[in-house]
């Protein structure tokens, strides 16, 4: 691959950079998180997840679910592309069959912004909805979470619940209405989590709301809906699954995350890697390795597409409690600062670097950088993805995983780095600036980092091959 020597040189520099964080000399998931001066880190983790119902054609049950809830005024949210496709049709038929009254909102923006969130919130506040349905990918589900939250908290300012430092990061203490999520992509895992992500346009960076209170009551995972994804949408959604699994598995352990919460309500949804999340993340990675290429190359391969839909759920449970780190933190300004790039397969009226693509483009550089902290996990991930690690050395873990990822991306015809989606070296300062507010996720990197480190990571990601 042309340019590989230059990429390897940059990755070597990242791998060898000094780390000044004393905590990182510890072994993952060992120790109590206490010091002789008293507790400085957390000592517990908490698992939370939506109920999940899986099965071909299971969407037909949604009308009965809403009947069982006694719902009399339901808000159905989707986007304009999906509004005419079979997933929405299946929901509407079930609602009609069971006499469920609803109002329809199809103005969700793919890759939502603060303005598009506010439009959905205004719609929700106009009616006293007693239940919500979100039919779509992460953009739709996240928008519906936000609409539900703010409609149930009419006194709240928009920034009250938005993650600090962009927002006030207030905990959600009130209740929300039941939300049923019907995911149509195999990627975000939003049906399992209490996270809603959007572009904050004033800063050209993504941020979001993170609270267990807003997770859906039920994720209705119907694999038939994934058959309508174009190949590039399937690929980019799958890359989100891949990075959810990799980042949550290699995140800073929960008992090394600081500070410990003064009250359980302050314990973040993203807590750091933990023994339960590890199981889900590792299993999701196995499914990605086995089925993702098939799912992208053959839209009618029901086994592959169904498996990736489940992998999205599994990874969602993993990262929804452990968190993600640098790939996601760095992805937000990549998506938020998009210039003219329009990804294939997305019928939208604005430039877009899809979320999964923006995440995966930095993955070879990121995992080269983080591997010194938990080389065994990086080597295990590489092995799951198909690498022969029988003779690999611990000190080479980062490059082994980076090469494995690079080949995986090449096989799936991913754009050649940040340069291919419109960025140059001159954009690196802005990309770094957009990453800095993402402390909610970047602080879960197993390796501490400086602004200079971030700049090197973006530089190493300009070209992949």
Strand arrangement in the largest pleated sheet? 3-10-7-6-4-5
Q: How many individual helices?
A: 16
Structural class: alpha/beta
Average of pLDDT = 92
The radius of gyration is 21 Å
- The stretches of 5 or more residues where confidence is low (pLDDT under 50) are 18-27, 30-37
Q: State the helicity in percent bands.
A: 40-55%
How many β strands by DSSP?
A: 10
Order of helix and strand elements from N to C terminus? HEEEHEHEHEHEEEEHHHHHHHHHHH
Q: What does the model show?
A:
There is one protein chain. The protein is an alpha/beta fold and 465 residues long. 42% of the residues lie in helices and 9% in strands. It has 16 helices and ten strands. The strands form three sheets. The protein has a six-stranded parallel beta sheet with strand order 3-10-7-6-4-5, sandwiched between helices. Strand 1 and strand 2 (38-39) form a beta hairpin. Helix 1 runs antiparallel to helix 16 and helix 11 runs antiparallel to helix 13. The chain starts with a helix and ends in a 5-residue tail after the last helix.
């Amino acid at each position: 691959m042309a340019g590989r020597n230059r990429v390897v040189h940059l990755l070597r520099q990242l791998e060898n950079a000094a780390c000044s964080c004393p905590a990182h000399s510890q072994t993952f998931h060992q120790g109590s998180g206490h010091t002789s001066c008293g507790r400085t880190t957390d000592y517990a983790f908490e698992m939370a997840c939506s109920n999940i119902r899986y099965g071909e054609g299971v969407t037909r049950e949604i009308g009965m679910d809403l009947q069982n809830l006694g719902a009399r005024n339901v808000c159905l949210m989707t986007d304009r592309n999906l509004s005419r496709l079979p997933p929405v049709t299946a929901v509407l038929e079930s609602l009609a069959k069971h006499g469920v009254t609803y109002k329809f909102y199809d103005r969700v923006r793919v890759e939502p912004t603060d303005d598009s969130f506010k439009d959905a919130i205004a719609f929700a506040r106009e009616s006293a909805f007693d239940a919500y349905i979100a039919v779509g990918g992460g953009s739709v589900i996240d928008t519906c979470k936000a609409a539900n939250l703010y409609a149930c908290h009419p006194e709240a300012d928009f920034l009250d619940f938005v993650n600090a430092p962009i927002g006030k990061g207030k905990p959600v203490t009130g209740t929300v209405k039941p939300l049923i999520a019907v995911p149509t992509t195999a990627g975000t895992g939003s049906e399992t989590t209490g996270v809603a992500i959007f572009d904050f346009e004033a800063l050209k960076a993504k941020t979001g709301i993170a609270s267990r209170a807003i997770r859906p009551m039920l994720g209705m995972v119907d694999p038939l809906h994934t058959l309508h994804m174009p190949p590039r949408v399937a690929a980019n959604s799958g890359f989100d699954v891949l990075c959810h699994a990799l980042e949550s598995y290699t995140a800073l352990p929960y008992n090394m995350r600081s500070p410990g919460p003064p009250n359980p309500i302050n314990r973040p949804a993203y807590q750091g890697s933990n023994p339960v999340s590890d199981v889900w993340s590792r299993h999701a990675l196995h499914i990605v390795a086995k089925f993702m290429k098939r799912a992208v190359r053959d839209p009618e391969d029901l086994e592959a597409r169904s498996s990736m839909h489940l992998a999205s759920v599994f990874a969602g449970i993993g990262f929804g409690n452990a968190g993600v780190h640098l790939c996601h933190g760095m992805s937000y300004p990549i998506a938020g600062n998009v210039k003219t790039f329009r990804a294939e397969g997305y019928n939208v009226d604005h430039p877009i670097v899809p979320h999964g693509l923006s995440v995966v483009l930095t993955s070879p550089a990121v995992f080269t950088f983080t591997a010194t902290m938990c080389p065994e996990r990086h080597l295990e991930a590489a092995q799951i993805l198909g690498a022969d690690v029988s003779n690999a050395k611990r000190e080479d873990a980062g490059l082994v995983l980076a090469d494995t990822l690079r080949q995986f991306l090449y096989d799936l015809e991913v754009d050649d780095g940040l340069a291919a989606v419109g960025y140059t070296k001159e954009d690196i300062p802005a990309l770094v600036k957009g990453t800095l507010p993402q402390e909610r996720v970047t602080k879960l990197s197993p390796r501490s980092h400086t602004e200079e480190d971030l700049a090197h990571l973006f530089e190493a990601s300009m070209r992949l091959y």
